[in-house]
Design goal:
alpha/beta, five-stranded parallel sheet, 6 helices, about 20% strand, binds flavin mononucleotide
Length: about 160
């Protein structure tokens, strides 16, 4: 089973979650990156307005991929504009399953998951599962149980 994890991370927490998950499910890791410096206040506003922001060219075609996992921070109760850009660029996903993990300070996981879900379902993809991690658990290492449970739901092990 070919699994791709696409993630965005500004301060490293989401990257930690994505990397741990990639090891557990043996997935290809694809980083979503802005082309350069960005203004965080503008980023927060664009997230809130569900807008997109340009990203570096990265793997968006799902040819040869069976499962897509999106790992994203919660921004303004939604997802960063770079993630919206990635989701809008995904091709070849019709009929394929996807999963979502959101990483957050405290709240907004459900609306952030819904934002990803809606965008990929519009492409004919099939939502399977989601999970949320919290920043302080990522800092303390207490997030691993959540990631392990999520991984087991994907690999069936
Ligand atoms: C612009 C911005 C908006 C955010 N909005 C939320 C939010 O609505 N709810 C929340 O719980 N955390 C929010 N956070 C906190 C991040 O989700 C949290 O710090 C996360 O760990 C960041 O991941 P990263 O270290 O991979 O960048 C926000 C952070 C930023 C920078």
């Amino acid at each position: 089973m070919a699994i791709r994890i696409a993630y965005f991370s500004w301060k490293g927490h989401t990257q930690k979650v994505a990397t741990a998950l990639a090891r557990l499910v043996n997935a290809e890791l694809v980083r979503i990156e802005p082309p350069g410096e960005f203004n965080i206040a503008v980023g927060a506003m664009k997230a809130w307005l569900a807008m997109k922001s340009q990203i570096r060219p990265t793997k968006t075609d799902l040819a040869g991929i069976d499962v897509l996992i999106i790992v994203t921070p919660v921004w303004s109760g939604k997802v960063p504009p770079f993630v919206n850009e990635y989701l809008s660029a995904v091709t070849g996903g019709a009929g394929k399953p996807f999963h979502v993990i959101v990483e957050m300070g405290a709240r907004g996981s459900e609306s952030a998951i819904a934002a990803v879900k809606n965008q990929l379902e519009k492409k004919g993809m099939r939502f399977v599962s989601s999970a949320a991690t919290v920043e302080r658990d990522v800092d303390s290492g207490g997030y691993t149980a959540t990631v392990e449970k999520f991984a087991a739901g994907i690999t069936g092990k």
